[in-house]
Specification:
By secondary structure, the protein is of the alpha/beta class. 26% of the residues lie in helices and 25% in strands. The chain has one domain: TIM Barrel (Alpha-Beta Barrel), CATH 3.20.20.70. Strand 8, helix 5 and strand 9 form a beta-alpha-beta unit.
């Protein structure tokens, strides 16, 4: 059983898979506590109803796009082995959005690693991440991004994403940074511009 904040079928709004349809599952529980977090409701797991693996799989297979994005909170707070195994047995591709600060569990078709300063990622996930997405809130976040760009595998996609409350100010800065450092790409929260979940 997992604490469920919400679940919805929508388009992915960030990173490599922007624009693709997927079923999203947002799990409650996070002890990282980013001050700019846009999902503080996720911090306390006990505030949310519980959902079983069976219910998750049933919903996931009901949608035309056979993929699920598991996010939070911090989804790796939980052991996700059984959930991923059940999803894959039913032909569902598995995607995760994680800070990487907990041990990796589950079997993933795509790992989006978004490291946080107050709880850095575990080393093993760095080599498995398909996508590194660093949130830019203040200027020293660029140094944080560069640190982890050196630690992920050579095929990992590198993204800088403006923190939403400052995106009007930060986006032009990120654009200029990427022009000077073209190994990076920008990720914008397209779903927020489209006003979809």
């Amino acid at each position: 059983m997992f604490p469920l904040i919400d679940d919805f079928y929508t388009l992915q709004g960030e990173g490599v898979h922007t624009g693709k349809a997927a079923y999203f599952l947002r799990l409650g529980g996070c002890d990282i506590g980013c001050y700019w977090c846009d999902s503080k409701i996720s911090w306390r797991a006990d505030l949310h109803k519980l959902i079983s693996v069976e219910e998750i799989v049933k919903k996931a297979i009901s949608y035309p796009a056979k993929s699920i994005v598991i996010t939070g909170g911090e989804p790796l707070t939980y052991n996700l082995d059984e959930l991923c195994s059940s999803l894959k047995k039913n032909g569902i591709k598995t995607f995760i959005e994680t800070s990487g600060s907990y041990e990796l569990s589950g079997s993933w078709d795509w790992i989006c690693l978004s490291p946080k300063k107050n709880s850095p990622p575990k080393e093993p996930i760095l080599k498995k991440a398909n996508e590194l997405k660093v949130i830019i809130y203040e200027n020293d976040d660029y140094d944080w991004a560069e640190k982890y760009a050196k630690l992920v595998n050579e095929n990992c996609h590198l993204y800088l994403q403006p923190e939403w409350s400052r995106h009007k100010k930060t986006t032009p800065q990120i654009v200029e940074y990427i022009k000077k450092n073209p190994k990076w790409k920008i990720s914008i929260q397209a779903h927020k511009f489209m006003k979809i979940p």
